[in-house]
């Protein structure tokens, strides 16, 4: 018997039908979307231009959006400034990539593993567990900050990467999003895989994950942005473990003399999440436009 479950079924998602609009309606919609897009892109454009501005243009009032005499002096000043400190600038970057990468990967995997039985298996207390997850989404980070700190302290994880990584694993939005998507996969497909001798883990890895790729990529983008901007000041005391966002805060405290270095760090902090989003944007759009699944 052919093992069809080894081949991911990627055509389950069907797109919504395009609405019938006149040419004038399409033109008006295009203009409105263009104006909104320009306003949303303006901060990004200004960050990129500020990173290339000399100090005299950075202090100019009223500020100009576009740079007139671009140069890389701000980046040079940044690396000279950080190399003079006892913690190299590369160390802050490495810490940020470790925290962001491990936290994002772990959150996606654990949320998917937990969502699979909630979506496809019936057991006592399933609805109660999912209700608790949904209820947890109503609380902001400020409400759970003290309990999180107490739990991390009880586990003796303060001043380690795990102090930031482990709380990221348990974020409830990931489980909620993955469960909603896994529920749309036909049960008949999973039953055919079981009849063909596939284990539950094989079904999860070869069928579930490929077919909900838009969902977990969207989740990865959200978690990546959250961890990338984390300062780690609550749990991390050692300078050797601090992320890049903490370095930006320290540079900002230096006053106007470091305005150019601040602009360079802001560009670095904004560029990486944007690049990651651009790489995954087609799947994010597919997540937002998904209307259901079909056999």
TrEMBL record:
One of its GO terms (cellular component) is plasma membrane. CDD domains: TM_PBP2. It is a multi-pass membrane protein. Belongs to the binding-protein-dependent transport system permease family. GO terms for biological process: transmembrane transport. It comes from the Bacteria. This is ABC-type glycerol-3-phosphate transport system, permease component. It is found in: Cell membrane. PROSITE patterns: ABC_TM1. Gene3D superfamilies: MetI-like (1.10.3720.10). PANTHER family: ABC TRANSPORTER PERMEASE PROTEIN MG189-RELATED-RELATED, BINDING-PROTEIN-DEPENDENT TRANSPORT SYSTEMS INNER MEMBRANE COMPONENT. It holds the Pfam family BPD_transp_1. InterPro entries: MetI-like, MetI-like_sf. Residues 93-280 form the ABC transmembrane type-1 domain. Keywords: Cell membrane, Membrane, Transmembrane, Transmembrane helix, Transport. The chain crosses the membrane at residues 21-48, 92-116, 128-149, 161-178, 260-279.
């Amino acid at each position: 018997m052919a093992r069809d479950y080894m081949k991911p079924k990627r055509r389950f998602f069907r797109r919504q039908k395009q609405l019938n609009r006149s040419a004038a309606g399409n033109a008006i919609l295009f203009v409105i979307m263009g104006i909104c897009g320009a306003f949303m892109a303006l901060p990004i454009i200004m960050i990129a231009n500020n990173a290339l501005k000399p100090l005299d243009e950075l202090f100019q009032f009223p500020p100009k959006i576009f740079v007139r005499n671009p140069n890389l002096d701000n980046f040079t000043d940044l690396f000279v400034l950080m190399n003079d400190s006892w913690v190299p600038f590369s160390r802050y970057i490495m810490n940020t990539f470790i925290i962001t990468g491990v936290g994002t990967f772990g959150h996606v995997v654990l949320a998917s593993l937990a969502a699979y039985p909630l979506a496809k298996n019936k057991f006592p207390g399933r609805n109660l567990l999912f209700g608790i997850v949904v209820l947890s989404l109503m609380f902001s980070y400020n409400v759970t900050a003290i309990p999180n700190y107490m739990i991390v302290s009880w586990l003796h994880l303060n001043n380690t990467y795990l102090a930031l990584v482990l709380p990221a694993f348990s974020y409830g939005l990931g489980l909620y999003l993955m469960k909603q998507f896994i529920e749309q996969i036909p049960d008949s497909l999973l039953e055919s895989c079981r009849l063909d001798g596939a284990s539950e883990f094989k079904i999860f890895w070869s069928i579930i994950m490929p077919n909900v790729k838009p969902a977990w990529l969207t989740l990865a983008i959200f978690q990546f942005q959250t961890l990338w901007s984390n300062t780690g000041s609550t749990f991390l005391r050692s300078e050797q473990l601090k992320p890049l966002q903490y370095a930006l805060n320290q540079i900002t405290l230096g006053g106007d003399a470091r305005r150019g270095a601040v602009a360079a760090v802001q560009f670095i902090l904004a560029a990486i999440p944007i690049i990651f989003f651009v790489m995954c944007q087609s799947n994010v759009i597919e997540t937002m436009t998904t209307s259901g699944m079909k056999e």
